[in-house]
Structures are given as C-alpha cells and as structure tokens.
C-alpha cells in the first residue's frame, strides 16, 4: 500500500559506489600493467627485426643471435 507524500516533500535515494570505484580503479591498473608488459618485449622484437631487415646485422653469427633474441622476447 502506497502512502502519498505531502506537497513539497523530498525523496532521497543514496547508494554507496565505493566498491564500484575500487573495482574500476583495479581494472584500469590491470589494463595499464598488461599494456606495459606486452609493449616491452614487442619493442625489443620490433627493433631487432628492423635491424635484421635493414641489413644491420651483416655477420651470420649476429643474425643468429638476433633471431634467438626475438624468440626469447616472444616467450
């Protein structure tokens, strides 16, 4: 059964959003950390591959070392 409010009455509804904000902050931190962890080895792989593609590693041993570094960074 509903009770009518008097004229000029006020209804206020509050909700604690602290847990939601905490979860959102955790999500942002997680995404930032994952992005950083992925970007770091990809930067190395990109630089090594560019060096190989440009002929910057002329000696077969250097080419072999660069290829192994790329493999390690990909793991």
Tell me about this structure.
This protein has 75 residues and is mostly helical. Helices cover 68% and strands 0% of the residues. The chain has one domain. α1 (18-53) runs antiparallel to α2. The protein is rod-shaped, with a radius of gyration of 29 Å. The N and C termini lie far apart (65 Å).
Q: In a few lines, what is going on in this structure?
A:
The chain is an all-alpha fold. The chain contains two helices and no strands.
Question: Could you give the topology of this structure?
Answer:
Blueprint: H1 18-53, H2 60-74
Helix pairs in contact: 1-2
Beta content comes to under 5%
Overall pLDDT, averaged? Answer: 85
Helical content band: 55-70%
Low-confidence stretches: none
Indicate the radius of gyration in whole angstroms: 29 Å
Shape type = rod-shaped
The major beta sheet can be summarized as:
none
Number of domains: 1
Question: What structural class do helix, strand and pairing data support?
Answer: mainly alpha
What is the ordering of alpha helices and beta strands?
A: HH
Spatial gap, N to C terminus: 65 Å
How many separate helices? 2
Number of strand segments: 0
List keywords for this structure.
75 residues, mainly alpha, 0% strand, rod-shaped
